[in-house]
Amino acid sequence: MKLKVIDHPLVAHKLTVLRDKNTPSTIFRQLVGELITLLAYESTRDVETVPVDIETPIAPITGTRLADPRPIVVPILRAGLGMLDGMTHLMPTAEVGFLGLRRDEETLEAVTYANRLPEDLTDRQCFVLDPMLATGHTLIASIDYLLERGAKDVTAICILAATEGLETLEKHIGDRGDVKIIVAAVDPSLNEHGFIVPGLGDAGDRLYGIVD
Q1: DSSP letter (8 states) at residue 12
Q2: What does each C-alpha distance from 189 to 96, 150, 195, 198 come to in angstroms?
Q3: Exposure string (b/e) for 67-82, b if CB count within 10 Å is 16 or more?
């Protein structure tokens, strides 16, 4: 597993506004999209391409396009949906699938409740969108699902990660696949409820409001 923390002043600025408890949902949603576009730029550095011959208005040239099969973007419901526009803005030809996972608040384990993905992901590059890598259980379940179905490599894009969650994820994944984690920052700890500290709160609630 490879971890990359994006060190960029615009990323740091937008993350600071996201952390602020006084930032309203409308601004929060806008900034998540902007931040994910910045993270996606680095996340797609190794996306597979092939040469393609085209003609400009002046002369022929060999350019580049995304290789087949196309990459697949997998937002984790529901908070990952807030990251989807920022990702597809940068890579509009990618396919999109969905995984719905929720955290059991007693065990802190991930429970799958929705799945809209191909059964066969052989040789696919997959990009998982989940704003918070806290305990690591949601990403473990998601990455396991993709690798078991033949995904070639998996890149998880997160806004924040906790040190504990990263350690749990690395121990579980081992060398079973080419897995990369791209984050805006790593926070030091989790509280007794499994939330990242200092974090930014519940990303889903801050994006969409509290659902009882």
Answers
A1: H
A2: 32, 33, 8, 8
A3: eebebbbbbbbbbbeb
